């Protein structure tokens, strides 16, 4: 990239010299024609180099984005591995202590966790799935996030656009993040998203518990109402340390 910039500066210098020669010197028609052709060639070269530099910048940006995505994926895998290792360690401890009644309870919890993760991975929208996982492992997030599904849901069956619900889920989570307040309490802020299908509609039930700016969240909600006309947003509930927002979208069965 630096070499390309140096080349462009050299070409601009040559163009200036050619222009000065044409204006300041009394040259015959052949010299003027030669300088004109040279300037045109240099201009074409400038256009080519600018295009080449633009392609190189785009390539570098794609590589940087890909690297960031890979690092984020590794972070998610590391976090999930750590969680599962904790579960295995708990079961191992119960086995060593012969506390088989607690081992059975721990196995039930792991089974429920596996089922929940399986349903989440089958949503059919890689973008929102990766976003949810990335948000859950983000230590800087203003709240912990949990997503609950009781049965398999395919987001591609949502009308009018399959990608709409993924966008809305992401934006709603970020909206709660904007309104959430950092707390020094032992009990952290928490956002639970329950997804279900009821009477031909996809139900998105957001329940937030923790400190937040009530007026700001109410303002965001009104903005969403005016923006997403095709989405039915039910009257929200706002308490001092809890807020509930329910969103419904048309859902087509298979």
Automatic annotation (TrEMBL):
Molecular function via GO: phosphorelay sensor kinase activity
Keyword Transmembrane among record annotations: yes
Record-annotated SpoOB alpha-helical domain positions: 64-123
Gene3D superfamilies membership: 1.10.287.130
The entry's keywords: Kinase, Membrane, Phosphoprotein, Transferase, Transmembrane, Transmembrane helix
Regions crossing the membrane: 12-31, 37-53
UniProt protein name: Putative sporulation initiation phosphotransferase
Source organism of this protein record: Paenibacillus larvae subsp. larvae
